[in-house]
Amino acid sequence: ATWEWRVFIKKDWNKSVMIKIWCETDFVANNEKVSEFADTILSEALANWVEAAAKKWDETLAEFIWIIWENIKIEEIKMTESDVSWSYIHSNWKIWVIVNLKWWTEEVAADIAMHAAAMMPEVLDPSEIEQSIIDHEKTFWVDELKWKPENIMENIMKWKEAKFRWEKALKTQNFVKDSSVTCEKFAKNNWWEIIEFIRFSV
């Protein structure tokens, strides 16, 4: 079967929760009943956190499947909390982003969320890239640089690792609207700080 994705977001001022659901057909994926069911799960998460929402899903799913006559399942459910949460849905309905902020203006928050949608960061900070990923990339870098003298190889490898980390992290990516600054610098220039982000895509 070809599974269809739906993502739903719900906010409550400083909390946001996002759920990605698989449906067996696009007919059911776009069914209002699925939206209503997802909303009850999101509301439970906002009220009692993700664990309670997952429990409610397990307790009510079988009955709901009898209503729609089709299987559905959760792919991911994530929740964030900070001074302010801001969500963004891209115009193609295939990318969803939540950013968490410490201090904020609506325009700046929207800019950061749109940047995260467009530039596909994988982590918030460069240090969060797992070493196993770096080790895997190094196998390609070594092959690429095998003609370089050994006395400069080490420095080039360090630069490649740093660049790889910067380009994957939201804070250190060049800001999409002004490439002369990073997202972190853009945030600080506007008197606020990026705390966390979540990005779903289908």
H/E series, N to C?
A: EEHHEEEHHHEEHE
End-to-end separation: 17 Å
Number of helices: 6
- Major beta-sheet overview: 3 strands, antiparallel
Helix content: 40-55%
Largest beta sheet: strand ordering: 1-2-3
Would you tell me the overall average pLDDT? Answer: 84
- Counting helices, strands and paired strands, the structural category is alpha+beta
Describe the 3D structure:
The mean pLDDT is 84. By secondary structure, this protein is α+β, with helices and mostly antiparallel strands. It has a 3-stranded antiparallel β-sheet. A 3-stranded antiparallel β-sheet has the order 4-5-8. A two-stranded antiparallel ribbon has the order 6-7. 47% of the residues lie in helices and 29% in strands. Helix 4 crosses helix 5.
Would you summarize the structure shown here?
This protein is of the alpha+beta class. 47% of the residues lie in helices and 29% in strands. It has helices spanning 26-29, 32-68, 106-119, 131-144, 150-168, 183-189, and strands spanning 4-12, 15-23, 72-81, 84-89, 95-102, 174-175, 178-182, 193-201.
Provide key terms for this protein:
alpha+beta, 3-stranded antiparallel β-sheet, 8 strands, 29% strand
List the helices and strands and how they pair.
Layout: E1 4-12, E2 15-23, H1 26-29, H2 32-68, E3 72-81, E4 84-89, E5 95-102, H3 106-119, H4 131-144, H5 150-168, E6 174-175, E7 178-182, H6 183-189, E8 193-201
Antiparallel strand pairs: 1-2, 2-3, 4-5, 5-8, 6-7
